[in-house]
What we know:
This is Membrane protein. The protein is α/β, with parallel strands linked by helices.
Amino acid sequence: MTQRTALILGATGGIGGAVTQRLLHDGWQVRALVRHGAARLDPRCVPVVGDAMDPAAVEAAARGAAVIVHAVNPPGYRDWQRLVLPMIDATIGAARTSGARIVLPGTVYNYGPDAGDPIDEDAPQRPVTRKGAIRVALERRLQAAAERGEARVLIVRAGDYFGPGAANSWFAQGLIAPGARPKVIRQPGRRGVGHQWAYLPDVAETMVRLLDRPGAAAFERFHMEGQWDGDGRRMVETIARVLGDPALPIQPLPWWLLRLAALVATTPREMMEMRYLWQRPVRLGNARLVAALGAEPHTPLERAVRTTLASPGCL
């Protein structure tokens, strides 16, 4: 059997790393586009030095690949306006040349609180943030490329990521402080306001299973339910339970402090923009995914939280 090849853009990030591990497990050859060498890559990966902003570099790295996983994301949401759309254009160009299928990890940012409950894949996209508008524009470019016959596209949308390697996440930046055993757990939302989470290995498993389906359409979108925290307390209480300290204080996230920090720092400013996701529930429905796969990959929350806490040294 011929070994399949995948190109990962963002292999050292959370979702890129999770998809890399899942593809390697299935025997894929995995290339990783990296800017500064391969120090943080799995040694089984083939590093290709280049920049996701450089169309020629992405095209060269994608030659012979069956899949391009577009998991690259500016850290801390910096320079989204300037970087995100040129990077997807480079990926579309590489897919046009190589015939590779593009896989995009999607988000809830496309939707505002008025999108419905649960939100299906064809719901109107009326984003209420700048990042949400960019995500909508990004996906529209992918859909247009698929309709022109230039690329085949798979988009898997999910809630807030958490898991090993997800340093740029609400879990790692909002709920706990990575690097040591937490002394306090922060709760960004009010009690009773649901929030959607997505465990990275489950997202990667979902993507790979969808890739292996025969007869896929040229453009496909699927939503994951992931870990739905219906009362806004399930995640933080699970963290306390895994840490073995039910008396560990769970305190509201000090949004006022974040607002002050946003005056001078990029990451707090970008986090403030997404506050609406903690003020009202925005929930993706997974009926289409379940119809396609039979069931959604789902790791029990306690096990997922334990693995996530162990990764940045919090256990």
